[in-house]
Amino acid sequence: MAADKAALLIENNNVVGASGFTKAGDSKSVLPAFAKRAATEDVAITLITGASLGYTTDADLAENNALLRRMPFMADPALRKSINDYRLKYIDQHLSETVEQLICGHIAPVDVAIIEASLIDENGNIIPTTSIGNSAFFASQAKKIIIEINTKIPLSFKGIHDCSVPNSYPDREVINIQNPTDRIGKPFIEIDPEKVIAVVYTDITDQPAVIAEPDVKTTAISNHLLNFFENEVKKGKLTYSLLPLQAGIGKVANSVLMGFKNSNFKNLTMYSEVLQDSTFELIDSGNLDFASGSSITVSEDCYDRLINNFDDYKDKLILRPQNISNAPEVVRRLGIIGINTAIEFDIYGNVNSTHISGSKMMNGIGGSGDFARNAYLSIFVCQSASKENNISHVVPMVTHHDHTEHDVDILVTDQGLADLRGLAPRERAEVIIENCVHPDFKAEIRDYFQRACNQTGGQTPHILEEAFKFHNRLKQTGSMQNKKTLA
């Protein structure tokens, strides 16, 4: 049926579980049609996806008051504004935990699942498209299923997926993955055909990712990290194939991975969430042998190359449900090297990756926490300063905690790298200030730390009256810099 007719089958106050993970494999017709319906009708839903949706779907739903609650991730500016204006309730979750919460009944069960498919096979199974996310579980739990068949996706996508649905507690099975190439499920999503209430055809490609070219700062971050890995190899801690890599989304993480192209590191593997342009650049360069993820989110040029030459990549890829791609059990077993981005971090290694000035949601936490706490190496990267160096991304105290000092091993900015392994808090502060802080802020941060040690002492010295002075100054003057000191 047509998308607008299918959208009428979604009832007010329904919990809708929709496919889509960081703009890949999302609902491109039914959810936009529901947003249009909500513009003239008083209807709203709780929407659970894998991660963010593409095009203007999240924005249209938010602006038409079609959302009661949204989880577990978002990255859309209009949706962000609605969240920060508290016009809808946003639940920010570790991406491995959404299925767990649904299994346990901690959140309301899914009424309607909307799943994008490349095809439906002769047995009624769904072959997903460019992501799996939480789709397999949504389809198993939902009372009703709407399938969007996307004719733009080649039928050759059949075979790259590894779909499974976990058992409920206490009968939870071991996730038997010992290598990124291992499979534990089936290449399709099993469904009960009796649940299917609509099949909608679409021919819309995923929204392309916007990939910024590496710049001076991101190249410096990449070089610092590559030098660190070279030293780990010299010490005998790693080999030139490293351990499986995970990288968060965005400009910095993508640029860091691009740095591996012209490096000594070969026969690399990935066990990650989002497979970005850098994944396919590394496959093309011969540096990366295999990549496991939950979605493929790439630029328009990379998308065209991938689709037109898919058979060249097919045996080097697996897409999994995000409760498997992000499973702490597997992350710990494989010894993942996790590389994620920070908005800011403080002198003791605590990381804020979601909020601006403590209150305003920027993007969700995503899977960074799943990997950070369980990785062989937990690495966070960001530029040392931005906005013409008016904002320092290393601060005395973070205004929001996503990853505590206990979960962070390595911090990297364009200024340098801080190896925090085995260091007590005061030792961490010395290393972070020396290696990661932008020169315009280094003297003031060092002075703060030294006075905190002298005045308050303790395990983790802070002067509470001054801990947020950078943020307060930014609010008052538009800059974290102390103009009087600079003058």
From TrEMBL:
Residue intervals of the Acetyl-CoA hydrolase/transferase N-terminal domain: 3-200
Entry-linked InterPro entries: AcetylCoA_hyd_C, AcetylCoA_hyd_C_sf, ActCoA_hydro, ActCoA_hydro_N, NagB/RpiA_transferase-like, Succinate_CoA_transferase
Database matches in Pfam families: AcetylCoA_hyd_C, AcetylCoA_hydro
Presence of the UniProt keyword Transferase in the record: yes
Active-site residues, record numbering mapped to chain: 273 (5-glutamyl coenzyme a thioester intermediate)
Keyword flag GTP-binding: no
SUPFAM superfamilies: NagB/RpiA/CoA transferase-like
Domain called Acetyl-CoA hydrolase/transferase C-terminal: residue spans: 305-448
Keywords: Hydrolase, Transferase
GO BP: any one term: acetate metabolic process
MF GO annotations: acetate CoA-transferase activity; acetyl-CoA hydrolase activity
Residue positions binding CoA: 248-252, 343, 363, 367, 387
Family of this protein: Belongs to the acetyl-CoA hydrolase/transferase family.
Protein name in UniProt: Acetyl-CoA hydrolase/succinyl-CoA:acetate CoA-transferase
Source organism: Paenimyroides ummariense
Native organism taxonomy: Bacteria, Pseudomonadati, Bacteroidota, Flavobacteriia, Flavobacteriales
